[in-house]
Amino acid sequence: EAAYIYREHLKALHAARLKDPAVGDDTQAWLGLARALVAQHKYDEALGDHGYPALRVLLAPSQRVPESYALLGNMVDQDLSPALWRTICTILEFDPATQSRSPAEKVLAILDRGVDRNPDSALLRVYRASLHRASYRNDRTIARDLRELELARADLEAAERLRPTDPDVLFRLFDEWYDSCYANVAPDHLDRAAARLRDLAALSADTLDEYQRNPEDMKLSLLLGEAKLAFKRGDPARCLEVASRWEELRDEDQRRFLPFAGRLYLRAERPALARKVAAHYRTAIENMTGVNPDLRDSASVLDASLAWADGRWYEVISLLEPIVSAGQ
Fold it and tell me: What pLDDT, on a 0 to 100 scale, did the predictor assign at position 143?
């Protein structure tokens, strides 16, 4: 398992360092171990005070590992036991009285500490923006307070000023700006989302290699981003332009894009082309062995969209009812 491999690697480094103090540490190995432990819900081991408590090591003030704060925030979202929060308070030097805070407030406190210690981290600012935006969205009052969105926008703009080149951060920035909430505080939010796609498209091969990104996978991810933007903006010509690129794709990439192409054709009021894509998609997944149920559901949703466009209401219900009943 991953945790075992990382732990053995760190043990070997420790043994080597006893013989030669010049041997360096491996932050990425600590981060890999922390992720593996959190994925297995071994929180005590990740934050303990003996053995190889990877997350505790990475959260030390002397360390500068922004990902560790994002990982801790996700962990708190899953487990809010008093004992866990007391441990976090000790590590991050929080007032134990913060136990009474809401889950969102606790995660925000973690991200605030992370930003304070890593002011040059675009990743943490995007994570914090996402939290502020979620707080605004979860506000059920009639007159929503825009302050949370203003804070989110400020974090996104601060992240952009840091000029990140990590594809993960840039995609997260795209996803944030794409969210309709930001129309309340940034009317040009879709333009900002589009700008992040351009940043991604401009990344060099060396940068993609540095972040272990496959160039072909990046092309598809960018195309999916363009499809989302085209659909939301609704310009028929752009929808047609992006949708037609399904014919350039092959195999799995084409299968992943076909549902988007179908919806774009419908958005451009070209139902005949949408039906062609839907039929092609059905054929593609039927020829697969061990088809994932999600793929069949995706095909049913596309067929339901076609039925809706044609005014076949009962067929829409028939297609979507099994999905809804299954809780999808």
Answer: 61
The contacts of residue 55 (CB under 8 Å, 6+ apart) are: 34, 37, 38, 46, 47, 68, 71, 72, 75
CA-based radius of gyration for the chain: 23
Select, from the ranges 74-83, 126-135, 142-151, 296-305, the one with the highest average predicted confidence (pLDDT): 126-135
For 254, residues 6+ apart whose C-beta sits below 8 A from its C-beta are 246, 284
| Type of residue found at 92 | L
Which pLDDT value is given to residue 300?
86
Buried b (16+ CB within 10 A) or exposed e, 220-237: bbbbebbbbbbbeeeeee
**Segments in 141-214 forming alpha helices (H):** 147-161, 167-178, 189-201, 205-210
**Angle (deg, nearest 10), helices 236-243 and 215-233:** 150
Helix (H) or strand (E) holding 222: helix 215-233
Token pair 């095909």: residue? 299
Using one digit for the tens of pLDDT, what is the confidence trace for 192-231?
A: 999 999 999 999 999 999 999 999 999 999 999 999 999 9
> Closest Cα to residue 84, out of 41, 40, 36, 30?
41
Confidence of residue 290 (pLDDT cuts 50, 70, 90): low
Are the CB atoms for 274 and 262 separated by under 8 Å? yes
CA distance 192 to 123: 17
Q: Are 135 and 104 in contact (CB under 8 A)?
A: yes
